[in-house]
């Protein structure tokens, strides 16, 4: 394999969150357009200076990024559409970075936004994919809850994890959400007893293992470091980034994801190891997936996340800060924006622009993504290591 | 025995159904009768459904089964089934005409 080009010269800047809402009468382009408006306001750029647009949404029907260009009167020379949900943030960042390096774009706006109403979620899960319609939906139409219940049950059986281990994740993230005004559940304290006493949804999953669907948007800008500096924007550089799709497809039940296949390359490209990462922002559709990412990204060995969770603290002030804004488990899952949340929160932490609490001296952050339950696991995975640059 | 899509070119069995072979990409696919036994890997009890047609049937018991023929399927299970149980799987059509798998204790 030829060595992968680095991401030298690329800056990631202007983390934007359009405040989440449990339900919304607005359509997805309102959420995405509001994020774009905020990106312009905070960067000082004019709309005409954004010549690249990468977008994702689950609630735009058949419309994609190109339809958004007409909606917003933009004429970009580079666009990207990322129908990969939980992995879309890392993937947008990787693609935008290459567009900057090649000169195909000067400034790329990366935006994820979704609306939410009582119909939108059931419509989404009902026709999510052909394999799902044949091989998952007929079994009680459990949506992702049923799939991840089986993955969680298998993980518990194989590795000796208990509900309390997963509870440690949910409880730590809820504590992290306090102080984050955008976390829809941030003001509702959660302790382990409360977690364990929650009603069952798809056993072994109970209420606080499941994210709450909501409306919202997350966004950031990608440009050259030179440009970010000239605009006076606090920004991060990309130390390394990976993605992998449909990894380990022969595994009968997922116990690992694509991160495991490429993590050595990720850390080699970044020139550092997991111990040098100040905070970790992982995709948290369910706690078991948080555990899996901690293992596959090298914070412990496979099957040892339960021990890690018993001995270390995932809180903002803990020895392994994870999902420091509360994650989707406490903020809500704003559709595809949930896939941008790890990247945006990583950027916030290392550039000193947090909505809630900041990890002391956070300088290096890892963000990872996981998306698209086409059948019985998510297929798309990716991860990126970011480092804070000039303030 | 159960019917599972198989490739006439390389012998690969596959589920869910595909338009070409997942292994060799041949489109010479037929349904073949294969052995119907397997092992339960994981079980879940469903207390919520996204569709009203299942509401009156809750809780529902589902499982992931690793079949001896080499495919793995989500299936309906019995309330007392657990990981490690040996099962036989049968197929039938549900009220919408969709083929479903049901695990039976051995």
UniProtKB/TrEMBL annotation, chain A:
Task: Spell out the molecular function terms from Gene Ontology.
Answer: acetyl-CoA C-acyltransferase activity
Q: Specify the superkingdom.
A: Bacteria
Supply the alphabetized keyword list.
Transferase
Question: Which CDD domains does the protein's record reference?
Answer: SCP-x_thiolase (cd00829)
Q: Per the database record, which ranges form the Thiolase C-terminal domain?
A: 245-378
Q: Which PANTHER family match?
A: ACETYL-COA C-ACETYLTRANSFERASE (PTHR42870), NON-SPECIFIC LIPID-TRANSFER PROTEIN-LIKE 2 (PTHR42870:SF1)
- Protein name as annotated: Acetyl-CoA acetyltransferase
TrEMBL record, chain B:
Could you tell me the superkingdom of the organism this chain comes from?
Answer: Bacteria
The record, for InterPro entries, names:
ChsH2_Znr, NA-bd_OB-fold, Thioester_dehydratase-like
Q: Start and end of every ChsH2 rubredoxin-like zinc ribbon domain?
A: 5-29
Q: Which SUPFAM superfamilies match?
A: Nucleic acid-binding proteins
Q: What is the recorded name of this protein?
A: Uncharacterized OB-fold protein, contains Zn-ribbon domain
Tell me the organism. Answer: Novosphingobium mathurense
